[in-house]
Amino acid sequence: MRFSQLLIPTLKEDPAEAEIISHKLLLRAGFIRKLTSGTYTYLPLGLAAIKKVEQIVREEMNRAGAQEILMPMVQPASLWEESGRWDVYGKELLRFTDRNGRNSCLGPTHEEVITDLVRMNVQSYKELPLNLYQIQTKYRDEARPRFGLMRGREFIMKDAYSFDATDKEAEQSYHKMNQAYHRIFERCGLRFRAVEADSGAIGGSFSHEFMVLADTGEDTIVTCKNCQYAANMEKATCVPASKSKDEPQELTKIETPGKRKVKVVCEFLDIEPRQLVKTLIYIVNDKPVAVLLRGDHEVEEVKLANILGVSDEDLRMADDKEVYDATGTPTGYLGPIGLEIQVVADTEVATMVNFAVGANDKNYHVVNCNMGRDFTPTMTGDVRKVTDNDRCILCGGDLVLTKGIEVGHIFKLGTKYSASMNATFLDAKSQEQPFIMGCYGIGVSRIVAAAIEQNFDKDGMIFPIPIAPVQVLILNLGLKDTEITEAANTIYADLLKKGIEVILDDRDERPGVKFKDADLIGIPFRVTVGKNFNKDGSIEIRTRANGDVTTTTFADSVAEITTMVEKGLNQ
Amino acid sequence: MRFSQLLIPTLKEDPAEAEIISHKLLLRAGFIRKLTSGTYTYLPLGLAAIKKVEQIVREEMNRAGAQEILMPMVQPASLWEESGRWDVYGKELLRFTDRNGRNSCLGPTHEEVITDLVRMNVQSYKELPLNLYQIQTKYRDEARPRFGLMRGREFIMKDAYSFDATDKEAEQSYHKMNQAYHRIFERCGLRFRAVEADSGAIGGSFSHEFMVLADTGEDTIVTCKNCQYAANMEKATCVPASKSKDEPQELTKIETPGKRKVKVVCEFLDIEPRQLVKTLIYIVNDKPVAVLLRGDHEVEEVKLANILGVSDEDLRMADDKEVYDATGTPTGYLGPIGLEIQVVADTEVATMVNFAVGANDKNYHVVNCNMGRDFTPTMTGDVRKVTDNDRCILCGGDLVLTKGIEVGHIFKLGTKYSASMNATFLDAKSQEQPFIMGCYGIGVSRIVAAAIEQNFDKDGMIFPIPIAPVQVLILNLGLKDTEITEAANTIYADLLKKGIEVILDDRDERPGVKFKDADLIGIPFRVTVGKNFNKDGSIEIRTRANGDVTTTTFADSVAEITTMVEKGLNQ
Fold it and tell me: Which CATH number fits domain A470-569: 1.10.472.10, 3.40.50.800, 3.60.140.10, 1.10.150.130?
């Protein structure tokens, strides 16, 4: 392909609409263009990168025995009513009525459609296991689409669904997908971690997320320095502190005028935040719930929702008025003693002795409070975020917090959909049984964004070789010089013959512009044919990732480039 | 791939929902399943055939210098308002409002989006020509979706759009696409014709349709026996008859009690239908228009709409009451004499002398009517369908009418969209000029259906080799026989190694079931390893298209099959 004929509208400045690096670079490098908030056109280079990812995903899914199909994007409401999700799925589900008055939606995911397909077409355990996948544009009507390809309304997903006869076989299917996912992200050339994850609203028994590691990631991953333990923050647990051996002291009320924040109260009382228990009020499905937490800890709302048996969308922090209405005390002086609403204590609180709490009286706190003696919570459980002071639940090793971008998620669904939609098969004894299901997603377009978040510098993108739009970019720096042009054209043609993917920058532009664009679009190998070629016949091959420069001759150039590309692809 | 592990839910009976052969066979062979009216899931074999077509399309589009991109499926109303199509496009355009109240639609075509993209990103004539295409699922909310993949609501299209600086260059772009389309349908292994077509509602200056020839086609193609002339019925013209030399006779009113139909009136008057002119009343945008036509001819409504300067959706035949309200005469006795509404005479009528017409008086006709003397139409023009009695407009040769299925359509759009949407570039003199556009569609999923309509027999589909889901199907007819199974498995593995696409039917089914399914799914080459292999070591290769059987040995089988496949692919 010749740069002069390609639509690669690079920009000199960061576009105002972009906040994160991948979004800025995808726009600047002419990979995508916005149509509306959260929807983008993939231009030739952007689509080429996506096709690379798709192909890797397809090969590994096929290798794992999954079969590619393609389901409609518009889905009938009736199936979502069967599964029970029509009413509970939020506004992300774009609902509409077609010309014949049928309620429909744009598919954000396809559990209902695939369950319907399989219940209509698979009768016997002999036809199992079955794993069906598709690569398709999905639609989620996000309230605030942002971050370019990271959280758009339209995005390309690979979604797979497995159907098994027994729980054991379903776990084998899950395991196969887990392995396939590892191969996929390895082949994409990404640094990633598979972490235990919460199953969330999609339901099911267990799940793993695949996280591309990047400082700019929105998610926090908890890993152990010592063992293989890895979980996302919503799911991560740690060794609880052992129960303090201190003797309980006498409860004492102390005037703390105007001291409301943890830090201020602790300074005033001359204690550490770890010696204080804070009382937070949540509104859970319109009812107030108090949450007790060590002063230096934070609530993990997904854990809190799980312990309360609700969705994390059903709870939120109360505002000052709601706090006062629920407790009769202004924010800042709340405590568990005498509180008449539901009280959830974090596990850690149960290990503390002689801690400070609010006195439920404006301008007062109490010290030497003890759970069991001074108050009894409605329930106790792990509702906090793990910190890097915590220890691994598996081996006691140090935990580390890292940032990541979720690019894949696998779920063991069990019978959530097959039971509600009455999708059954006949087992060996001719008994009807619900299929045991799993579902497995990969954000194909998001992988491209995540790869950029993980690999960039001040000059532009640095694509991993396997998912770069093309592998080589040749700069012809002497468009009016016959020798240079002939050499560049010959290398271009010879590389194409060898099956190397290559763009020839034959634009009538200054060398500075060509170098800048080359760095920006991040093609792994840049080949320069310029003044030096006239001088001493030398051609320069630069590796984008590390800036290494190899000087070669015209005669050796094609072999040299081919070797570098092949080595890079097989890393 | 092993048949036992693939989702190929073949059916023994024709499904009640299917009317045409491709729809029946696609369902029976387990290629597709219906989700809702007009939307289908492509199962593994169906998707495999579609991917074959996609790949041929992609290769030929790239070869023609077009660049692949991908635009969003959801489009903002604002762009359609700019082009003026928001109000005029029918209910096929599925309109909805997103959660933020923005009017949107599901893309049935992408002229607006691409014009917007190009006006934002292309400034200079130096960046032209530009041809951008995508392969994507489109949505048209058809009133009565039917015929399976032939006229669905969701379907896979390749749509391309060219942008040029001058009319001459635009015609070169059009010509390139015309050539690419010929290569695409040839490579798909289809018998087809490119025909002149009406530009219709999409607008523009000229267009061609690509028709797969099939007796079951909905469209009629007019071709010349003698020269290259080919047009669809909506566009086809012919040599008009020469003016009759007969002397005009005296107009005579004749009582024709109860004689209303052309055939009955002609018998009663003892004349041929070619000696009578019928008067038909159309309602065009709520107003009545009379159309005069030779008795044995039929109205071509697209031609009529064009001559009246309206869309063919704006006109329809009047019912009996409307006829009476407009003319004061009951249907059956209408004639042009004294008629006070707009009258359109077909060109052929102008060549006739002494013809019969209705008298505008119940139970009466008149004979020896002559145009010019007895009445003057508002306008005269070609508004009829060509027949196989007509002669070629180019060479005077005999015309032939054939049935076809439209699978591609190319349009020279001109500035229809660039002018209304103010999409301009700077020409060599730095003057703003609107882009000259073309658009080029291929119905990817429809090609698969059309290929079946063209190639089937009573037993099932007969896929052209280049677009068959796979090339070879091996039947293991001795699943419990170690020797047979080993031979089948070895051939299977060796063919895969050679890059031949192959399915091994390893199901625990009777030979009869396997033979029946093999015929049904129409894989080009069927390899049978059964009893004869035990008897004399022979293996049978059957070509689905002609039923030819080649007997070979185990040792020669792989080489033999490979040769047959390669020969078939290169035909």
Answer: 3.40.50.800
